[in-house]
């Protein structure tokens, strides 16, 4: 073998002969292989070192330029830099300039989550989205009839066999709500369902803010329900504020105000349930926004952004009367109109009024009590009705009206039940105890399935009775009744679906352990302060639960805590 390609070696360098050449008694020469570019050993390390060196030289040059004194026009001619003498930064190749010294973990993680969510979405058959939409109309439509069935079916019919994007923003919001706890998507796992839900939620918020319309309000409404149930109370209030601003922008609040100003005060109220899903449903759905906003923010003291409309409704709260023949209209009337004096009371308390229960405050609280009771007086205690064909009908709006009325009474009076210097302390305790037992009666007559498949507001209402009774026992030593366990069971059933109820379940178990066993669990002291609402302390309780849930969390019942 002869070759002249062994040019890498100097003339005085002699290479050893191989055994083969010696035995064959031939003169052998080494044949050099041509160099090939590639990722051989040390290539990547060398490339990175060169790029880092270049980056360091670039930073050093940039720092030297920024530290150079700025020359003003008043300097001597010898110090003035002529245009041709000015420094210019060397051009860096795109490869070197784009090479990051540290990876951007946040961006990479976000892209990975988004790509994973899209892949999960594409893995689901299109028929599955029909199932989720049906669940909305079976489980949520009765108490939140804001969607038109025909419109959702038309949007579903337009979906391709492999879905990577849902064009209809309202349908997208429905899927975001229902996918998170759907057992039929068990192949995605809990984290996969949660990731897909958050991805769709983000898309809905982006589109709804960019395109204000009635559809945007409907989608935001559903996302607010999702956040409320996910124990994200601040986000719920922010999204409801977006609903109000969008409603102001497209004029539906102004349209409603003009309509009710033209009516007699005793005639003002929401229209029938059928109007909410008709072609001209803007006014009806405005009532729905007001109702959910007022019920979900019960106990929080701030002035509503739609001040003109709210002030008008507050002024007629004790004059107008709902149509008691329709349980849905009665519930919306209570939430949107009947609760306005309650919100005014909390606002006045935050401003320094109503500190003690006497005089003017006594009159205000009693007016609230009698007005709340007027909505449920004569109502049956059960929400179940046996129809003519033998089927059993469950009226969730009947349940919500009763729970909301009694929860409002407890929240108004509870701040006075431990004030021993107040001469009306016994009245406050009697009012709270009455509503506490009424809430037990309502929950006692509900099945576990209906308790689980429910609005997250259900847990919020029941929690008012539980917190009041535990605080009263801790402050006075008055032992709780055996029927108290009915309320704890209801919260536990609701916790099977909603993280909000799971957090409340953990907190109440900790409170019971502190009362019964004097266990030093460190529950935040503000939990026992009944002058603060559960919304006021939600974030501090969430922080406490995140570090203590393993002690009291029933995994086999509650599922993963988010």
From TrEMBL:
MF terms per GO, please? DNA binding; DNA-binding transcription factor activity, RNA polymerase II-specific; zinc ion binding
Gene3D superfamilies found in the cross-reference section: Zn(2)-C6 fungal-type DNA-binding domain
The UniProt entry, under CDD domains, shows: fungal_TF_MHR
Q: Name one GO cellular component term.
A: nucleus
Q: According to its UniProt record, where is this protein located?
A: Nucleus
Keywords linked to the UniProt accession: DNA-binding, Metal-binding, Nucleus, Transcription, Transcription regulation
Q: Which InterPro entries match?
A: TF_fung, Zn2-C6_fun-type_DNA-bd_sf
Q: Which PANTHER family match?
A: ZN(II)2CYS6 TRANSCRIPTION FACTOR (EUROFUNG), ZN(II)2CYS6 TRANSCRIPTION FACTOR (EUROFUNG)-RELATED
Please identify the protein, giving its name as recorded. Uncharacterized protein
**Organism of derivation:** Lithohypha guttulata
């Amino acid at each position: 073998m002869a070759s002249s390609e062994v040019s890498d070696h100097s003339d005085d360098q002699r290479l050893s002969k191989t055994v083969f050449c010696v035995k064959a008694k031939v003169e052998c020469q080494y044949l050099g292989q041509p160099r090939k570019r590639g990722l051989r050993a040390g290539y990547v390390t060398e490339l990175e070192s060169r790029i880092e060196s270049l980056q360091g030289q670039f930073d050093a040059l940039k720092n030297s330029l920024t530290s150079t004194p700025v020359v003003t026009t008043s300097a001597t001619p010898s110090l003035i830099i002529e245009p041709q003498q000015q420094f210019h930064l060397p051009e860096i190749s795109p490869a070197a300039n784009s090479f990051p010294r540290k990876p951007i973990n946040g961006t990479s993680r976000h892209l990975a989550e988004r790509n994973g969510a899209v892949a999960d979405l594409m893995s689901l058959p299109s028929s599955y989205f029909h199932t989720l939409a049906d669940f909305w109309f079976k489980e949520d439509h009765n108490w939140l009839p804001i969607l038109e069935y025909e419109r959702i079916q038309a949007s579903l019919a337009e979906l391709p066999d492999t879905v990577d994007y849902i064009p209809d923003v309202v349908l997208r919001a429905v899927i975001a709500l229902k996918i998170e706890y759907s057992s039929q998507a068990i192949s995605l796992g809990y984290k996969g369902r949660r990731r897909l839900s958050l991805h769709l939620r983000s898309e809905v918020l982006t589109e709804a803010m960019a395109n204000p319309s009635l559809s945007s309000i409907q989608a935001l409404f559903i996302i607010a329900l999702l956040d409320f149930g996910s124990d994200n109370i601040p986000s719920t209030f922010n999204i409801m504020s977006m609903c109000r601003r969008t409603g102001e922008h497209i004029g539906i609040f102004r349209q409603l105000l003009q309509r009710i100003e033209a009516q007699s005060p005793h005639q003002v109220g929401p229209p029938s349930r059928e109007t909410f899903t008709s072609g001209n449903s803007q006014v009806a759905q405005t009532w729905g926004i007001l109702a959910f906003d007022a019920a979900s923010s019960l106990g929080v003291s701030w002035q509503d952004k739609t001040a003109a409309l709210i002030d008008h409704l507050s002024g007629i709260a004790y004059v107008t009367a709902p149509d008691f023949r329709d349980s849905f209209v009665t519930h919306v009337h209570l939430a949107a109109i009947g609760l306005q004096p309650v919100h005014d009371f909390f606002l006045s308390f935050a401003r320094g009024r109503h500190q003690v229960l006497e005089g003017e405050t006594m009159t205000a609280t009693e007016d609230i009590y009698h007005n709340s009771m007027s909505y449920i007086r004569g109502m049956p205690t059960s929400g179940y009705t046996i129809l003519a064909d033998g089927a059993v009908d469950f009226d969730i709006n009947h349940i919500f009206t009763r729970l909301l009325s009694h929860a409002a009474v407890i929240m108004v009076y509870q701040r006075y039940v431990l004030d021993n210097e107040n001469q009306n302390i016994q009245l406050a305790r009697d009012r709270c105890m009455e509503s506490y037992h009424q809430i037990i009666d309502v929950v006692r007559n509900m099945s576990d399935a209906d308790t689980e498949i429910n609005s997250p507001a259900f847990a919020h209402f029941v929690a008012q009775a539980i917190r009041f009774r535990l605080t009263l026992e801790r402050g006075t030593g008055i032992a709780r009744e055996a029927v108290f366990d009915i309320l704890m069971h209801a919260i536990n059933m609701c916790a099977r679906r909603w993280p909000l109820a799971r957090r409340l379940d953990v907190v109440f178990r900790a409170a019971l352990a502190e009362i019964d066993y004097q266990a030093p669990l460190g529950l935040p002291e503000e939990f026992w302060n009944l002058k603060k609402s559960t919304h006021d302390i939600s974030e501090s309780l969430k922080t406490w639960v995140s570090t203590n849930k393993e002690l009291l969390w029933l995994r086999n019942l509650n599922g993963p805590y988010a």
